[in-house]
Amino acid sequence: MSEARFGASPTKDGTSFRLWAPGAKRVDLVLEKRPQGMRRGDDGWFALDVAGSGAGARYKFRIDDEIDVPDPASAFQPEDVFGPSEVIDHESFRWWRAQDWRGRPWAETVLIEAHVGTFTKEGTYRAMIDKLDHLAGTGVTALELMPLADFFGRRGWGYDGVLWYAPDSAYGRPEDLKTLIDEAHLRGLMVFLDVVYNHFGPEGNFLGRYAPNFFTEAHTPWGNAIDYRVPEVRSFAIENALYWLRDYRFDGLRFDAANHILSEPGQPSMLHDLSVAAGKLATATGRHIHLVLENGDNRASLLDAAQEPPRGKYRAQWNDDYHHAWHVLLTKESAGYYGDYQRSPRADLARALASGFVYQGEVSSFWRNKPRGEPSGKLPPVTFVNFLQNHDQIGNRPFGDRLESLASVPAIEAALAITLLAPAIPMLFMGEEWGSKAPFPFFCDFEGDLAHAVRRGRRQEYKWAYDKYGDEVPDPLELSTFESAVLDWQSCDTPAGSGRLTLVRELLAVRRREISPRLAEARFGSADVTDDGLLTVSWRMNDGATLRLTANLSPNEITHHETATTGAPIWGGETNGRLPPWSVIWRIGG
Asked: Which terminus of the chain is less hemmed in, N or C, by CB atoms within 10 Å?
C-alpha cells in the first residue's frame, strides 16, 4: 500500500487514519457513526489504526466533542462537503486500457480546457469518454480539466474547492475519473488538472477550527492566504499534487493564480519544492510530467520548459498578455485589464509572438501602476501557453459570451491560424474547435447568506451591465444559468460548425507535421508590425529552419512587396503582392 501522511490509508489489516489538528485538544474518529479516541502525537498529529476497516468505510473526525468534520484529505465525499468521508483504496483500481502509458513530450502538446459538468449533457466523467475520439480526431493531444476538488453544492466552476483530495461527487466516483484518464491515454491524449493552492472555498472548510496555523492574516482576493511557511501546510499541498499525478495518473497540473501563493522570502518556495517532488516521481516512473503556472506577475525566472524532469521550475505559463492583445484587437474592449493593451494591440501581439510576455518589467496601470513581469525573450517559445479564450476570459463577463459573439468570423479564423501554428503551446476552450456560441457564465450552488453575498458581489462588479440589462444578466445561483453553459454539441454538425472544425483540424494537422517536430529547442526571433496592420514574425527552429509568419491583421487589403520569400508555404499560399483582409501565411525553410 502507498504511504500517505494525511488522511485515511488502507493497510494490510485495515485502515490508518491521520489528522493534523494542532488547535484541537481531543479528536475522535467517528467510523460508521461510532466514535473512537485518536492518539495525540507530536506537533498536533492525531492517529488511529483500525483493523478490519477498509475501502468503502465512512468516517468523520470529532473535534473536542464539539463538531464533526470531514477529513481535510478525504479521498471522496459521496454526500458532499458536509457529509462523511469515504475510504478509497487507490491501488485496487485496475489500469488496464493503457498500461504502458508514459505521457508525451511537451512539444507535442495541444490543450483543450474543459469543465466536466458542462462538457456533456450528463455532466459526468463517464460521459466525457464518448467525446475523446472527437478530441483526438481534431488534433488535440491534452485534455485539461477545470478543478475537481470537492466544493459545496451540485454545480460550480471548481475554484472554491475545500477538500483538495476528493474529486467532486457531482461528476461521478473516483474510479469513474480514473477510467476517463485511462481511456484518454489509450487514445494518445494526456490529461491535465487545474489545481487551486492559493485559497480554500468559503463553504465547508473547517481547517480554521482545528488547524488555525493553516492561514495567515494576509488576504487573497478570495479569502485568507495559506501559510506555506508551516511545514505541515506545505506538505499538504505537495502531497496533494503528487496524489493527483500518482494515484490518478494525471500527466500534468495547472496551478491557479500562483502569484497569490505565499512563500517565505529567502527560502525555497512551496512551488519550488513541489516541482522537485514531481520531478522525483517522474524519474521513478519514467513518465513525462508537465507543470504549468498561471501567474499574473509574469515571473520568467520560475520557468524552464526544457527541465526534464522538473527540478524546481515550471514547464510553461498561461500567457494572458497574448490573449488580452488579441481580445482588444478583435473587440475594441477597454474595460479592466484590457486598458493596458489599448495603445497598440497589434504591437503587443507582435511582442508576445516574438518574446513571450508583453509586460516584461514595464509599468502596468491595471497592476497599480507598478512594474510587472520579467524579461522573457531568452526562454523558448514553448514556455508559453497561448489562447484566444478560456474559462476566465469567457466566464468573467456579465453574460459569459464567447469571442464568437463579439468578433467577425474572418478575424477569428485569422487569430486561430496564428495561435494554432505559432511555436508556443496552443490551447482551446471546449467547443471553440467548432465555433460554439454556448455561453459560459459564472455559476455556483451556494445557499443562504453566502448566496446573497455572491449575488451582491456580481451586481457590484458588473453594475453597468445590471443598470443597462437588469434581469437579463444571468443569476449565478439559478439552475438555468448552469444549464445555459452546457456545451451545444449539436451545433458542431451545422454548416458553420463543420466548416470551423475542418479549419481547426487542418491547422492542427499542419502543426503536427511541420511545427511540433521542430519545437524542442526552437527560439524566438524578430517581429514587426506596420500601421496598416501588416505583421511579420520569425522564429528559429531546432533543425536550423526559419519559421516565418506574414499576416494582415486588418479588415482592409494591404499591398505587400516581400523582400524575402525564403521557405516553402505551409499555410496560406502566395501573396502575389496583395494580402486580403485577415489573411495569414506561414512559411518554413532556410
From this structure: C
Residue 2 confidence (pLDDT)? 40
Contacts of 285 (CB under 8 A, 6+ apart): 102
Distance CA 493, CA 410 (A): 20
Cα–Cα distance measured from residue 368 to residue 214, given in angstroms and rounded to the nearest whole number: 29
CATH 1.10.20.10 fits 520-589, yes or no: no
The alpha carbon of residue 515 and the mean position of all alpha carbons in its chain are separated, in whole angstroms, by 24
Count of other CB atoms within 10 angstroms of residue 306: 13
Q: Is 256 a catalytic residue?
A: yes
The reply to whether 182 belongs to the active site is: no
3-class DSSP assignment, residue 418: helix
One of 294, 321, 392, 404 is an active-site residue; which one? 294
Cis amide prior to 105 (ω within 30 degrees) = no
In contact, 63 and 209? CB cutoff 8 Å:
yes
Print burial letters for 197-223: b (CB count within 10 Å at least 16), e (below 16): bbbbbbbbbbbeebbebbbeeeeeebe
Give the ranges where 110-220 is alpha helix by DSSP (H). Answer: 116-119, 125-129, 132-138, 174-186, 207-210
Domain boundaries, the chain: 7-88, 106-295+308-319+385-516, 520-589
Q: Assign domain 7-88 to a CATH class.
A: mainly beta
When the candidates are 3.40.1390.10, 3.20.20.80, 3.30.1490.20, 3.90.79.10, the CATH number that belongs to 106-295+308-319+385-516 is 3.20.20.80
Q: Per-residue pLDDT tens for 265-274?
A: 767 899 999 9
Q: Residue 146, Cβ neighbours under 10 Å: how many?
A: 24
Assign 362 to helix, strand or coil. coil
Cell of 60: 468523520
Q: State what percent of residues in the chain have pLDDT above 90.
A: 88
SS3 assignment, position 174: helix
SS (H, E, C) 317-338: EECHHHHHHHHHHHHCCCCHHH
- Mean pLDDT confidence for 414-418: 98
Instruction: pLDDT band for 3, please (50, 70, 90 cuts).
Output: very low
Name the catalytic one among 28, 256, 348, 432: 256
CB 44 within 8 A of CB 211: yes
Say if 106-295+308-319+385-516 and 520-589 have the same CATH topology: no
Q: Which residue has the cell 457590484?
A: 460
Cα separation of 533 and 557, whole Å?
10
Cα–Cα dist 221/198, whole Å: 10
Type of residue at 500: R
Strand ranges inside 357-424, DSSP E: 363-364, 370-371, 384-387
Question: Measured between alpha carbons, how far is 63 from 212 in angstroms, rounded to an integer?
Answer: 13
Length of the chain: 590
- Asked if 387 and 428 count as a contact pair (C-beta separation under 8 A), the reply is yes
145, 60 in Cβ contact below 8 A? no
